[in-house]
Amino acid sequence: MLNNSFSTKANLADVWTEQVYPAEITVENGTITAIQTITDEGVTGYILPGFTDSHVHIESSMLVPAEFAKLAVVHGTVATVSDPHEIANVCGMQGVEFMIANGQQVPFKFNFGAPSCVPATSFETAGATLDSNDVKKLLEKDEIKYLSEMMNFPGVLFEDEEVMKKIAAAHRLNKPVDGHAPGLRGDDARKYIAAGISTDHECFTKEEALDKLGYGMKIIIREGSAAKNFEALVGLLDDYPDKLMFCSDDKHPDSLADGHINQLCQRAIAKGIDVFKVLKAACINPVLHYKLDVGLLRIGDPADFIITEDLVSFKVLKTYINGELVAENGKSLISTTTAAAVNNFNCSEINESDLKITENQYPSVNGLIPVIEALDGQLITNRLLLKGNLVNGEWISDTGTDILKMVVINRYNQAPVAKCFIRNFGFTKGAIASSVAHDSHNIIAVGADDESIVAAVNLVIKEKGGVSCVAGSRNLVLPLPVAGLMSIEDGYQVAALYTAIDAMAKSLGANLAAPFMTLSFMGLLVIPHLKLSDKGLFDGDKFSFVSGV
């Protein structure tokens, strides 16, 4: 039987009066019934609201929701605003329903959205489609709290009928609409926001964020495993504490095991930002904006709070959700549950002949070819025009100039392999492959030679989803049987295996902090400038395939 009736004493970080004072909190049946100031100056620790990740794709942790929760509560996270867009692109409505049901197995407050862009574009092959009627049905569910990031900003600007129906359905139900508009400024940003889109987590400069703030949008500061915008944006908290939130967006299992929103609080305090402004972004603003059933340390609220060692390091001593102790002193008290895998995977193993690129199969002028430049810590890429490596009429990887072959394989149907070249992975040998490839999650791979790429891809295909690394006769694979995105194993075991495979990838000569996470975004067509889908090389600025240079 749960012990969710108790009292506890510590220094209360009162976000409503912006004061810190000794207090006793009384909890009865999971609800806060009293908060009393006490004179005992010998109390230790600090009570504060639990952290909420205001925009995250649980799938990127490679963990099912129940296992994500198991790791997150150790760091003081009690809730997430979760976009199940990734599994929806693979399994449709069944995928969203899986996420809701799995999350309900554990004491954690998942708040899922209705994916607005499935598929994200018509220029790639996805596993499912959610039209405006499907989105409306999802939004009518109590478990669905908002319309997830509207990535089709051209559709908003040109008032596409399906796009506007999805937004209108959310507004009718009084549910917020999340944005996704990297680089959008000026009149286009104003029109996008005027359509009733309330947040954006894609700002990568202070100037862009200020522009959108000026039009009434709230900005979510993102710091994930690949995209890192904290340093560029955190200073805005000084002037806009009520308009900002923290999120991770996409966080790999090793990173989640290490820390979560608590780390952003620690870093913000180290920059001299007022603690209550930090706590607004980390705890208060997401709950108010999305109207979440998450307690904020008020009488009558659910007892969702944490006790930290201090207000500097934010080392979490205890985490409570609905009055239940779910983590203590770095140990999770959430048990691993069972999960039946859902998936959508239908392709055969490939061979080296599938990867050949003859001279006339790739756009070039005077030996110069288009090359994607991956950027560490960013989802955007650059489009380069570089001298290709043409050998006997075939374009091949060149480790000397770090121009490597990248491929995307349609995982839903048998189809030709899409191929291009990319820079900044830095591999001098071997290859990596993954069935985690935003947004449609076809198989994506990059490597120093075709033999290694084929071996890495076929490891993923054999498991019907996963991430793999190949270096000569050595190989590692992390199976991801749930939609080719998530494991059903213990979260800490998954984190350990991912740590090993990540280290192996870096041993190939990787220049990137998170090579698998970066690779997963090289097929994300809605982020400029040059990407690769299963249908070909794609220009994100012109929103069309590359036909020449």
What does this structure look like?
It is a single chain. Helices cover 26% and strands 27% of the residues. The protein is an alpha/beta fold and 549 residues long. The chain folds into 2 domains: 50-293, TIM Barrel (Alpha-Beta Barrel); 352-545, no CATH class. An 8-stranded mixed sheet has the order 3-2-1-4-13-14-15-16, covered by helices on one side. An 8-stranded parallel sheet has the order 5-6-7-8-9-10-11-12. Strand 23 (431-434) and strand 24 form a beta hairpin. The longest helix has 17 residues, at 491-507. The chain is globular and about 85 Å long. The model has no long low-confidence stretch (mean pLDDT 95).
Keywords:
single chain, 549 residues, alpha/beta, TIM Barrel, 2 domains, eight-stranded mixed β-sheet, eight-stranded parallel β-sheet, 15 helices, 29 strands
Quick structural gist:
The protein is of the alpha/beta class and 549 residues long. The protein has two domains: 50-293, Metal-dependent hydrolases (TIM Barrel, Alpha-Beta Barrel), CATH 3.20.20.140; 352-545, no CATH class. A hairpin with an 8-residue loop joins strand 21 and strand 22.
What is the CATH architecture descriptor of the largest domain?
Answer: Alpha-Beta Barrel
The multimeric state of the shown protein is single chain
- Provide the CATH top-level class of the largest domain: Alpha Beta
Structural class: alpha/beta
**Helical content (DSSP H or I, runs of 4+):** 25-40%
Task: Determine the CATH superfamily of the largest domain.
Answer: Metal-dependent hydrolases
